[in-house]
User: Which sequence fits this backbone?
């Protein structure tokens, strides 16, 4: 079963999504829908409506959705050309707008392809320790849907060792806990939102944050079990953190690149 399961309606531009704990993060008494799940929902809806693959998408997070909510997912496609569609998705909980996703979709055949971003040299997933959590969480939340292994950086209790990072880099190998799930664009949109996991590693303290936005751009195609999440935190300023993440397949193909601004939370 896919993590994002849209419910169709009589209107091909309207869908619904039930918010389950498996789509949420946070303290067990205060769960909220993971930002990456919101972006992935937008991608799933607009791809279903247009029949085209996403080129880039940007989500702006406005409010929170809680477990038990039934979200309305509205797709608008004002421009649809021979190869490219452009549109947006508005996701609401009742009358409250939760997030908006803008996107461009399509594919242009017989065009040259190349890759300049290179995957860093890291140990294989089997040689990396499992990521440990040092906060209270439900065993069936979104984090339980992924296996994470630390390739570089400080996670868990190790975040407070040695002060701030010299380079702001943290790297995770990530794969779906359910091996039947494939790593597609929808899954990559969720994985990209693990970028805030690198904030504590960069700052050398128990820190993270709530995403204000998430922009993802899709690159190459490759079948892969594990995804290398190459995080670089660029700056922390005035209570906000900015960073980017590259997502690589095991064979080095750049699958996507994403960036975020995050409200800094120090615990």
Assistant:
């Amino acid at each position: 079963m896919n993590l994002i399961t849209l419910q169709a309606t009589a209107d091909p531009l309207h869908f619904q999504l039930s918010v389950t704990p498996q789509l949420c993060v946070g303290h067990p008494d205060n769960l909220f829908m993971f930002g990456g799940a919101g972006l992935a929902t937008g991608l799933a809806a607009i791809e279903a409506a247009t029949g085209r693959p996403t080129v880039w998408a940007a989500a702006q997070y406005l409010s929170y959705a809680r477990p038990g909510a039934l979200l309305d997912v509205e797709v608008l496609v004002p421009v649809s050309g021979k190869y490219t569609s452009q549109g947006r998705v508005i996701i609401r909980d009742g009358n409250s707008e939760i997030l908006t996703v803008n996107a461009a979709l399509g594919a242009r055949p017989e065009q040259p392809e190349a890759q300049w971003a290179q995957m860093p040299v890291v140990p294989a997933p089997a040689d990396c320790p499992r990521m440990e959590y040092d906060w209270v969480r439900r065993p069936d939340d979104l984090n339980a849907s992924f296996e994470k292994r630390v390739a570089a950086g400080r996670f868990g209790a190790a975040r407070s060792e040695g002060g701030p990072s010299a380079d702001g880099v943290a790297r995770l190998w990530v794969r779906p806990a359910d091996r039947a799930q494939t790593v597609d664009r929808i899954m990559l949109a969720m994985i990209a939102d693990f970028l805030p996991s690198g904030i504590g590693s960069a700052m050398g303290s128990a820190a993270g944050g709530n995403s204000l936005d998430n922009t993802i751009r899709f690159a190459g195609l490759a079948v892969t079990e594990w995804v290398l999440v190459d995080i670089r935190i660029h700056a922390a300023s005035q209570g906000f953190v900015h960073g980017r993440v590259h997502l690589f397949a095991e064979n080095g193909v750049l699958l996507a690149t994403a960036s975020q601004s995050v409200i800094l939370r120090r615990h």
